[in-house]
């Protein structure tokens, strides 16, 4: 029997984002449970489940995009944790953020690096 988009998405959300991902989903339940469901089904059940890229490559892309956007600190922190969860080294993540200075500018790279610094501090305190 084929698994539903939701079930597959929830499994991948747990694997990639762990507790941080579930916190995002849970925080939507009282205001818009549909958005929580769509967040599980589309990004995780449809996109992350595709086989052409591994999870590490997908998280590198997510970190780069969110760093370049420059206005997504909460989502960037979730994906910085996710990148580490799926096998990126600290140095690899730093290089991705540094690379964004070329394409998104120094403010975006600085904000990304400071977000990463916070994530590393939170992880070492846990």
Automatic annotation (TrEMBL):
Name recorded for this polypeptide: 4-carboxymuconolactone decarboxylase
An example Gene Ontology molecular-function term: peroxiredoxin activity
Organism of derivation: Vibrio hepatarius
Highest taxon of source: Bacteria
InterPro entries given in the database record: 4CMD/NDH-1_regulator, AhpD-like, CMD-like
Domain Carboxymuconolactone decarboxylase-like, first and last residues per copy: 33-118
Family annotation (Pfam families): CMD
